DNA sequence: GAGTTATAGTTGCGTCGTCAACTATCTGTT
DNA sequence: AACAGATAGTTGACGACGCAACTATAACTC
C-alpha cells in the first residue's frame, strides 16, 4: 500500500474551482433553457444528438452511449419528449428488439428556437473568461480525459 | 437582436469534451466512493466541508452555499447523514432560527477511511492526463469562471 | 417598541435518474 | 437446427434534489 499522495496546492486549486464552476455552470444553463424555452438541458442535448444524426434518428442504445446516461434514463426521457411532441419512436426493421427515436418537425423547431439563447448563455458563462490559448489547452485536456476514462472503464 | 455567434471549431471541441469528460468523471468518482466506502460523492463533499470548518461544524446555510446545492437539499442530506451517524445537529445559541451541523467522530473516521481511495481515483481519472502547465492554466480558468458566474448571478 | 421585511430551516410535492429484474430478440457454438 | 449466452428496450422500486409554501426568529424602520 503506497502512502496517499494528497493533492498539491495547484491541484487542489484546480479541483475545487473545477467542481464549483462546473456545478454552477450546469445549473445556470439548465435554468436558462427551462425559463426561455421550456426544455431541460438534458433534453436539449438529446435533441442536438438527434438533429445531427443521419435521418434525424438514433437507436435508443446509441443515445444512451452518446449522452452518458443509462438506457432506462433514455427510455424515460424519450417517453417524456414523445409526449411533448418533440420525438417519436419508430420500429427498427433490421433488429426487432430495437427502436428508433426520431426527431419530429416540432422537435426541430423547438431546438432551433432554443439554440441561440443557449449558445449565448454558454458564451456568457464559460467562453467569456477564456482566451483562445485557454480554449486550445482545455480542449486537448478534456479530450484526453474523456478518452482516458473511457479506456479505463472498459478494462476495469 | 444580434445574429447568433455559434461556436468555433475549437470552442465546440472544448464544449463537447468538457461535457462528456465531466459527466463520466463524476459518475466514476461517485461509484468508486459508494463501492469502496458506502458514501456518495455529494455526502463526501459535505464531510470534507465540515472537517475543514472551525470546531468541525457549519450552519446549514453555510453548507448550502459552499456546496452549491439548495437549502432543502442540505436539510435532507444532513438528515440522512445524521441517521448514518456521521453528523449531528446542534442548537445555535446566537441565532434561535439556526442549526449547526457537526461532524461526529464516526463521520471523521468515515472520511479518513474514504479519503485515500477517493484521492487516488481523482488522480487516476483527472490528473493522470494533465501536465503541470495544464493544471495551472485550468486552475486559473475555472477560478475565473467560478467568480464570473457568481458575480453574474448576483446582478441577475 | 410596534410593525414590516428579510432570513434560517423544514416539508410536501413533483420530476428526474439509477439499479435490478424482466421480456424479446439476436448471435455464436455444436 | 437447437440451445446458451449476449444485447435492446422497458418497467417497478427507490433515492436525490429542486421549487414553493410554511413557521419561527432576527433585523430594520418609523
Automatic annotation (TrEMBL), chains A, B:
<dbReference type="Pfam" id="PF12802">
    <property type="entry name" value="MarR_2"/>
</dbReference>
<dbReference type="InterPro" id="IPR000835">
    <property type="entry name" value="HTH_MarR-typ"/>
</dbReference>
<protein>
    <submittedName>
        <fullName>MarR family transcriptional regulator</fullName>
    </submittedName>
</protein>
<dbReference type="InterPro" id="IPR036390">
    <property type="entry name" value="WH_DNA-bd_sf"/>
</dbReference>
<dbReference type="InterPro" id="IPR039422">
    <property type="entry name" value="MarR/SlyA-like"/>
</dbReference>
<feature type="domain" description="HTH marR-type">
    <location>
        <begin position="11"/>
        <end position="147"/>
    </location>
</feature>
<dbReference type="InterPro" id="IPR036388">
    <property type="entry name" value="WH-like_DNA-bd_sf"/>
</dbReference>
Amino acid at each position: 500500500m503506497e502512502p496517499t499522495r494528497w493533492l498539491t496546492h495547484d491541484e487542489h486549486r484546480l479541483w475545487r474551482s473545477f467542481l464549483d464552476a462546473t456545478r454552477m455552470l450546469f445549473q445556470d444553463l439548465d435554468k436558462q433553457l427551462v425559463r426561455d424555452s421550456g426544455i431541460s438541458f438534458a433534453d436539449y442535448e438529446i435533441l442536438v444528438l438527434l438533429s445531427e444524426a443521419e435521418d434525424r434518428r438514433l437507436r435508443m442504445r446509441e443515445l444512451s452511449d452518446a449522452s452518458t446516461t443509462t438506457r432506462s434514463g433514455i427510455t424515460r426521457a424519450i417517453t417524456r419528449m414523445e409526449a411533448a411532441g418533440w420525438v417519436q419512436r419508430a420500429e427498427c426493421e433490421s433488429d426487432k428488439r430495437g427502436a428508433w427515436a426520431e426527431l419530429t418537425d416540432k422537435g426541430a423547431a423547438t431546438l432551433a428556437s432554443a439554440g441561440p439563447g443557449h449558445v449565448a448563455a454558454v458564451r456568457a458563462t464559460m467562453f467569456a473568461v477564456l482566451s483562445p490559448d485557454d480554449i486550445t489547452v482545455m480542449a486537448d485536456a478534456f479530450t484526453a480525459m474523456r478518452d482516458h476514462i473511457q479506456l479505463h472503464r472498459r478494462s476495469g
